Amino acid sequence: MAFSATHSTTRIVLAERPEGTPTASTFRTETAELPAPADGQLLVRNRYISLDPYMRGRMSAAKSYAKPTPLGEVLPAETVAEVVESGHPDFAAGQLVATYGGWQSAAVVPGKMARRIADNGLPESTALGVLGMPGFTAYAGMAEIGRIQAGETLVVAAAAGPVGSAVGQLAKAAGARAVGVAGGAEKCAYLVDELGFDAAVDHRSADFADRLKSACRDGIDVYWENVGGKVLEAVLPLLNLYGRMPVCGMVAQYNATGVPEVPDRLPGFMRAVLNQSLTVRGFIQTEFRAKHWDGFQQDMARLVAEGRMKYREDVVEGLENAPEAFIGLLEGRNFGKLLIKV
Amino acid sequence: MAFSATHSTTRIVLAERPEGTPTASTFRTETAELPAPADGQLLVRNRYISLDPYMRGRMSAAKSYAKPTPLGEVLPAETVAEVVESGHPDFAAGQLVATYGGWQSAAVVPGKMARRIADNGLPESTALGVLGMPGFTAYAGMAEIGRIQAGETLVVAAAAGPVGSAVGQLAKAAGARAVGVAGGAEKCAYLVDELGFDAAVDHRSADFADRLKSACRDGIDVYWENVGGKVLEAVLPLLNLYGRMPVCGMVAQYNATGVPEVPDRLPGFMRAVLNQSLTVRGFIQTEFRAKHWDGFQQDMARLVAEGRMKYREDVVEGLENAPEAFIGLLEGRNFGKLLIKV
């Protein structure tokens, strides 16, 4: 390897496992020296760090779909980064990549975990949003599970978020009716006025279930579940025969610490599954990478260029503000894809 | 139409909608005169009446996957019957058919709702069991949803029943491991000794969840859900990645009158769906009739002939005993496909 000066990184590590909502003491900021990249590795400088709800799961020791982050280790995140020094033949210094750089200013990563950012005329940050993991989650889940048809009705929870807004716009592009559920009048107006949803329902409204019913006169064919909680409850009686329910997140439950002491809703859920011949399917987008990634990049870039796939970013400046931004994300305070600009 | 004497039928009608478990006053026995069959109709004499858990749903006014039986009307059931007089060109007097003759001694039915019983060398009653609706439910649900592979593990609840026993034997025929859940030592012994299940677990045992875990060392790939309740709870932590859950019945809930006051298990269920990328799919066998019925008749008759698909019937003599037999069915007191011999 070429001679290389050491590089330092400022990083945020998991200081303690949160009980319920993370707090300031969940996180600790450190400075560390990074080694030069070995063969196959890249030294990168992070430019944008993606904060996503699934990260709450990594902070717990409990079984989830990914391994927990060990205490004292840097919190994981996908990042857009510039290659500073390359030990991998496919990459050169100065190139922009999407990789798993974590909550830090610089990182040494395996080259096989990096991908060149396509030259599609869009801002580099979209590689973490509409053209990255959230956009792909929407695309693959609709292709494999939602399979919405023209004339059908889709309801998506967390509709103003990066996954939900893509899901709704994909439904519109397929000729279906899109109904979004979001928190607050501003997000609801955005869904209808900016993204072209047919209707939006504020889950904070007292008569939420009635409003949702009014917005879904022909019932619901696809319910995109990424929240959990009361949205699902209001959706259940409206689901049509052969309804589909892609399940890609449970953000409302990520902070839960025990079994809620309310009446058991599982029997009612299973009755709906049986009575309406529903398909409920959990998934993580990695399952569909090999099959759909290339088509996703092409289709999504085209929809964006045609103005049929809009996106919104919520960019927070400064790594030091990541913990507070993440806590706000779990509480629904952000509006658009949450990114840290390093 | 040819001249025809009137025929009388003894029938059991829905006297009142049961709250919880049906009782004697749910039912009323009547005698009525039947008209001669009109064009397209058949006058049939029922020989066997099939009693099935789904009938509990028809007794309630609540929304289900089929319309409720109106008060005062004869309770619906599939039957094996002899054609007494035919107004349909495809049928002649003396032929045996499977049709929807109801809880009565004779009926006038549409010819299009009848099918000739295939001459396959098996007793006519099998047209209501292993070669009828229960057997087809198992066959179609495994073909379309369970899709079990050699080396995988299946768990089926109500395993000694007509659907469950067929499901387990289909899994064995596919080279998979079959674990049955049933109530009591006699049924469990039957599953292993007679049907060739790899293991059986008594859901009445105090350490049921531990026993199930011991019987499923490699986890569970397919859980066939036709019961609801505590079996599902014990299954959830054992399900493997990409597990499938065909849902074709909720017998444990059919008598439920309200929302159970226990901790809410829906969040835990949805977490399992997400973490393990599960597929949960409700279905009624009619959905798959056109696609799979002919293959079912051939495959199942062959498996029976080869001794790889055994079945058991619980035949109760006398229409007057149908109500008590049905109540026992909901409580798991029968052992084998419950039939009334008229």
TrEMBL record, chains A, B:
Limits of the Enoyl reductase (ER) domain: 20-340
InterPro entries: ADH-like_C, ADH_N_2, ER, GroES-like_sf, MDR_fam, NAD(P)-bd_dom_sf
Keywords: Oxidoreductase
One Pfam short name: ADH_N_2
Domain of life: Bacteria
Keyword Oxidoreductase: yes
The keyword Oxidoreductase is annotated on this UniProt entry: yes
Protein name, as recorded: NADP-dependent oxidoreductase
